[in-house]
């Protein structure tokens, strides 16, 4: 179904071709322990091997479970892999023992060519079983696996890096981030490494179907291995995500083991579940295959967020250092930040065509300033092409004329500030638990909040993108002691806000959407639970310490208490999010909705929230709001303490 | 040995230039801006955000371990360095930028693939920068022609 090797070219390197090829070849051979010799004579009979395996309880060995991706769930033991081709036993998905014995049979008790095929297909299993069963690998007839050998020499695995493409704040789906693993060969340049990626495969273009199917595991997930530069273009250029590279301390033998296991996963599918059986979780198996002493997969929660797996890997002591790669969007912002307003305006003239690049030397700019203008214009033209705002012809003409001008200006300008922001794994944990107390309409209450994921506008921005919010299943319970009443105050299934400031070079739309159950004031002067869906969109402007926004809002409310059981309206909201120093955040917002369809009424709400960040994983929030709904007023004042983990 | 190679290559470039001119004409799919979209969905906001949701990969390439130079025509035995060729093909636009800028990660990568000693790279970058318009004349050059020109200049 999937193309494996597009074309196998003769692979020679200028200069020292044979040396490299044969050293890789020899290493590979000797690691696999290859000397061709008689097959049947040297191998003990199958019955003996099976007996040995049983005595050693190999089927219960942790490494066997790693290689087969077994996991114990409430339904018993099962592999996360769904593809029947991954198993040699019909019951292999659920039965480690039968799979192990079927594997032994396939490896050691069939005709030599057939056995070789299976051995080449599952080299990690073959090596591990041979070692555990005490087979003399020196005399084992490891077949010359042509395809595997080609891939092995091509990749030449020596070390590995964990890659984390972070968040693009205007695309909240990316807020969870993603993880992949780079396998590095003999080259110094990271661009020449291969990226191993687990992802859903689809050609779906219907957005809704895609989201639903993705969450419920209706797409097959496949491992892929592609040049890293290709993945970088995808993440850093197209998706505007800054990329972090975490160098892992796997040695060559460990990286090699990982590679052999990746080979076993070639063309093998498992159902992709967005929340748990996702990229992050599957990659942990690769690391365990590399270093058997690692116990990563059992440290996962029922839902797995990529950044949490980065933390798990870091805590296991596998991460050595980090390197930051700004996305194209970040590059544009940082280059623009070192420019004066007049330089920025000249750049815009170059971009809109009113100032041809060839005229730039006569625009009265210093050499350094011209370089900045051209650097920024070049990045912007590429960016517009990525967004398909330019045809290929337009792009070529503009790109070439800019670069030509740039080539006359000599060595590079002073580099913009490429310093690494706070590492994403050093930010607050994605789970939040909070305890609070307050007054609603003069009634005292105590409050518990539990939010399994992920980041709120009021949480510390360190390691996250400022102005982004994505809350899932935020549950708020209140207890009113005077009424002896426990109340579900709020269950926000999804609450997303994306505040992306506009600038001369970026004109993003800010937007938000929230849906869930919420207590709302009614004409009787009391709170009642309603279902709400509130989308909105607008603009945001800002600088380092403030983001101000204005959005058009819509609101749909459903409850039996409404006339006609619903109320639909539109209106707007304005607000400012302030960062004062590193420890204090404030959000002031005003919102008005005219409900015209269904139960018609108006609602106004003004709120002031302030956060005191007391540590990486703790904060205190003071909330004050006043609202007027159905001509009734209510004030809410609360203080809560938040703990992240 | 290396010098001999380069001399040979230069000769080949001279001989093969007309061939390339023809190739470029019929091979419009090989210049700048060609590979940027390789393996990706269209650039609409929808497909971009969807791609991020499941980190979905559009298309069906899984194991791209191959330095084969597909997509555009192979050069006529000019260079037996498939990796450098593949890298040039896939990174033509960013190489153009690095050359015009006088350095960069992609250009350094190509220099490594061409086994240019570290000490000689700064000089190479300056030379390439000075010859930018020679290397990228119309922007429609085949990547193989670009690499040949780079090697000729570096020689």
Task: List its salient traits.
heterodimer, A: 645 residues, alpha+beta, seven-stranded antiparallel beta sheet, B: mainly alpha, 8 helices, 59% helix, disordered N terminus
> Biggest interface in this structure?
A-B, 87 and 74 residues
Number of strands of chain A: 22
Query: What is the H-and-E element order of chain B?
Result: HHHHHHHH
Helix content of chain A: 25-40%
Q: What are the low-pLDDT stretches of chain A, counting only 5+ consecutive residues below 50?
A: 1-41
| Terminal-residue CA separation of chain A | 42 Å
Shape designation of chain A: globular
Q: Give the number of helices of chain A.
A: 17
What is the oligomeric state here? heterodimer
Range of strand content of chain B = under 5%
Strand content of chain A: 25-35%
Shape of chain B: globular
- The rounded Rg of chain B comes to 17 Å
Average pLDDT figure of chain A: 85
The total strand number of chain B stands at 0
What's the rounded overall pLDDT mean of chain B?
67
- Sheet of most strands of chain A: 12 strands, antiparallel, barrel
- Helix/sheet category of chain B: mainly alpha
Helix proportion of chain B: 55-70%
What features would you describe in this structure?
The complex is a heterodimer of chains A (645) and B (155). By secondary structure, chain A is of the alpha+beta class. In chain A, 30% of the residues lie in helices and 33% in strands. Chain A has 17 helices and 22 strands. In chain A, the strands form 3 sheets. Chain A has a 12-stranded antiparallel β-barrel with strand order 10-11-13-14-15-16-17-18-19-20-21-22. A 7-stranded antiparallel β-sheet of chain A has the order 8-6-5-4-3-7-9. In chain A, helix 11 packs across helix 12, helix 12 packs parallel to helix 13 (306-315) and helix 15 (341-352) packs across helix 16 (367-386). By secondary structure, chain B is mostly helical. Chain B is built from 8 helices and no strands. The longest helix of chain B is centred in the first third of the chain and has 25 residues, at 2-26. The radius of gyration of chain B is 17 Å and the shape is globular.
